[in-house]
């Protein structure tokens, strides 16, 4: 079959969005969005506040259902009933407003919704979760006092490090990051960018939302622009510049 | 210095408040009321027997508060459950009566739960309404009459009986606290309850079925109140609409003093047990001091106020 031959040269994209449309009641949040995302590729999603970026992430992560359009994972059409079905297919999200349980220890957050249990009674295996979490944060060089620390006692950078470590640990296909450095200082931002770049080395597909064009140009292979729910265009980072992206975002011609 | 600081952290100052407070009040009564027989094993056992229903209800409430919900209706549930069991046992075997009592509690809890979890009504308002609703139903069920419970096996199991010379109410307390503690600390359900109360959105995007957790904790609350109703009926050998009427403040105070956060995400079953025993000890000590009922109420109210203030101050750091 032709498909099997062509799949050698260009395998199915990890994520393929086709004609995604989303309306909340009367408000159209996403008009008509299509994008292919390949393994080992970082695509940045940019656009002004309210452009529909977070909505798009929530559609891919199963939080919202598209009003119409198709989502394919590795070529297979999928339909998520909720966040856990997307997770079980290897999609992980780092949310804009951190989705961490503040009063619980780091290791319980790492395993939130997927707690390890041990026989014979199926009780929580806290020791193992603590140990595995400690290994993971050490590997990723997230500097926290201990995997047993309570989230509330950590800094914003440390929290974001944990959210990303969690996504890294569980993702097998795709990581979505919604403004992962919005609240971080310079050093913490650099650290998070390092972590995102390392996701690429793990051959995951990555979609990152950011308002920092510097960051976008540092990290992304391609840049996709949204404006008021409309997909304005996709550019290869190497073949564009900030002026062009800015004018796509704002709708105002960059030439002065 | 740092090591002693982290040790303090690990002991969790906030939880240790209840241990220190418990010990302080115990020692105070032991010293001042020694001659009045506070320290006799008979009196101490009595305290545990009297607090058994409150402890059972407190366990349910720890789960509800930890999930970010509250139950105000459990006092009314106690009466409805006890009356249901007593009425049913007049014409049916004991087992049917027990099931009726627990079932009534579970049903009312589930009703609260469905309204809160699936219609997203605030649990404070829902259970405030069902508290009144079922207080009324308890009154009308038997026209304010009290129903005797004459089944000896029942009053043995839920009241005055003993096993290996340990009073059954003590056994119920130990059993409920042990199971409650394990479920709370060491099961996925417990972890999901805490996550839901801590950050419901985080829980939801992590695949936790948040509505099911909310339904679960409120049903548990109702069921525990049903069990408390059986314990009252067993000990008093009768059921009446007044049962559980005055437990609301005691149980909430016990749970808060025991280190459970009012707004979810944090709690302790052992703390709730100590909190409940503390309330019982206060009751008992104030009576032995010879205070009349109105003075008892005033002193108890003040002490609860102080205790709650101290434990909440600590929570918000
Ligand atoms: N649950 C919802 N119900 C109704 N409208 C919504 C909902 N979520 C988002 N919207 C609307 O959809 C539009 C896009 O919002 P979205 O959060 O996706 O923007 P964004 O691009 O992420 O913005 P920002 O950069 O500020 O995070 C907005 O007009 C918003 O009001
Ligand atoms: Mg957003």
Which helices and strands, and how do they pair?
The complex is a heterodimer of chains A (256) and B (317).
Chain A: H1 2-9, E1 15-24, E2 27-37, E3 42-46, H2 53-60, E4 68-73, E5 76-78, H3 83-88, E6 91-94, H4 106-110, E7 117-118, E8 123-124, H5 126-139, H6 156-170, E9 174-178, H7 186-201, E10 205-209, H8 213-219, E11 222-227, E12 230-236, H9 242-250
Parallel strand pairs in A: 3-10, 3-11, 6-9, 9-10
Antiparallel strand pairs in A: 1-2, 1-4, 4-5, 7-8, 11-12
Helix pairs in contact in A: 6-7
Chain B: H1 2-11, H2 13-32, H3 41-66, H4 74-91, H5 94-117, H6 123-141, E1 147-148, H7 152-160, E2 162-163, E3 166-167, H8 168-186, H9 188-198, H10 200-205, H11 210-236, E4 238-239, H12 247-257, H13 269-288, H14 293-316
Antiparallel strand pairs in B: 1-4, 2-3
Helix pairs in contact in B: 2-13, 2-14, 3-8, 3-9, 3-11, 3-12, 3-13, 4-5, 4-6, 4-11, 5-6, 5-11, 7-11, 8-9, 9-11, 12-13, 13-14
The complex binds adenosine-5'-triphosphate and magnesium ion.
Magnesium ion is lined by residues 53-54, 96, 178 of chain A.
Question: Could you describe the 3D structure shown?
Answer:
- The complex is a heterodimer of chains A (256) and B (317).
- Chain A is of the alpha/beta class and 256 residues long.
- Chain A is built from nine helices and twelve strands.
- In chain A, helix 6 (156-170) runs parallel beside helix 7.
- Chain A is globular, with a radius of gyration of 19 Å.
- Chain B is mainly α.
- Helix content of chain B is 77%, strand content 3%.
- In chain B, helix 3 packs antiparallel against helix 11, helix 4 packs across helix 11 (210-236) and helix 5 (94-117) runs antiparallel to helix 11 (210-236).
- The longest helix of chain B is centred in the last third of the chain and has 27 residues, at 210-236.
- The radius of gyration of chain B is 20 Å and the shape is globular.
- The interface between A and B is medium-sized, with 27 and 23 residues.
- The structure holds adenosine-5'-triphosphate (ATP) and magnesium ion (MG).
């Amino acid at each position: 079959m032709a498909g099997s031959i062509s799949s050698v040269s260009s395998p199915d994209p990890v994520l393929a969005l086709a004609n995604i449309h989303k309306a909340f009641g009367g408000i159209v949040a996403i008009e008509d969005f299509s994008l292919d995302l390949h393994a080992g590729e970082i695509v940045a999603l940019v656009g002004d506040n309210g452009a529909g970026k977070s909505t798009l992430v929530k559609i891919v992560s199963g939080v919202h259902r598209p009003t119409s359009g198709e989502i394919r994972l590795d070529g297979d059409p999928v339909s998520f009933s909720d966040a856990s079905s997307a997770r079980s297919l290897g999609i992980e999200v780092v949310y804009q407003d951190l989705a961490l349980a503040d009063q619980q220890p780091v290791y319980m957050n790492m395993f939130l919704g997927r707690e390890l249990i041990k026989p014979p009674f199926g009780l929580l295996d806290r020791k193992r979760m603590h140990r595995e979490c400690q290994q993971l944060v050490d590997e990723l060089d997230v500097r926290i006092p201990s995997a047993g620390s309570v989230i509330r006692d950590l800094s914003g950078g440390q929290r974001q490090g944990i959210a990303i470590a969690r996504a890294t640990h569980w993702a097998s296909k795709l990581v979505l990051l919604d403004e992962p450095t919005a609240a971080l200082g310079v050093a913490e931002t650099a650290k998070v960018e390092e972590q995102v770049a390392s996701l690429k080395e793990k051959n995951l597909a990555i979609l990152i939302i950011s308002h920092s064009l510097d960051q976008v140009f540092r990290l992304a292979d391609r840049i996709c622009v949204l404006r008021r729910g409309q997909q304005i265009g996709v550019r290869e980072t190497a073949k564009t510049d900030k002026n062009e992206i800015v004018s796509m975002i704002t709708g105002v011609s960059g030439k002065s | 210095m740092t090591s002693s600081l982290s040790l303090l952290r690990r002991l969790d100052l906030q939880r240790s408040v209840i241990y220190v407070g418990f010990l302080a009040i115990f020692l105070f009564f032991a010293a001042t009321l020694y001659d009045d027989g506070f320290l006799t094993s008979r009196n101490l056992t009595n305290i545990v027997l009297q607090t058994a229903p409150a402890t059972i209800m407190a366990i349910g409430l720890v789960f509800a508060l930890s999930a970010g919900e509250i139950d105000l209706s459990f006092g009314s549930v106690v009466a409805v459950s006890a009356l249901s069991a007593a009425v049913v046992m007049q014409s049916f075997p004991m087992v049917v009566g027990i099931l009726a009592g627990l079932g009534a509690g579970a049903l009312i809890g589930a009703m609260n739960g469905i309204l809160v979890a699936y219609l997203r009504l605030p649990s404070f308002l829902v259970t405030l309404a069902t508290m009144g609703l079922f207080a009324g139903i308890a009154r009308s069920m038997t026209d304010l009459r009290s129903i005797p419970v004459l089944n000896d096996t029942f009053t043995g199991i839920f009241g005055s009986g003993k096993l290996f010379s340990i009073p059954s109410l003590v056994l119920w307390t130990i059993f409920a606290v042990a199971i409650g503690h394990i479920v709370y600390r060491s099961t996925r359900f417990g972890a999901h309850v805490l996550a839901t109360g801590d950050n419901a959105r985080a829980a939801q995007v992590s695949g936790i079925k948040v509505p099911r957790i909310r339904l679960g904790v409120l049903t548990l609350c109702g069921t525990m109140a049903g069990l408390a109703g059986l314990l009252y009926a067993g000990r008093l050998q009768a059921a009446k609409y007044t049962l559980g009427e005055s437990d609301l403040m005691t149980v909430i105070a016990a749970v808060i003093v025991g280190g459970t956060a009012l707004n979810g995400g944090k709690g302790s079953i052992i703390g709730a047990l100590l909190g409940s025993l503390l309330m019982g000890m206060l009751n008992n000590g104030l009576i032995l001091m010879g205070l009349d009922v109105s003075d008892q109420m005033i002193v108890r109210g003040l002490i609860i106020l102080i205790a709650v203030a101290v434990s909440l101050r600590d929570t918000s750091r």
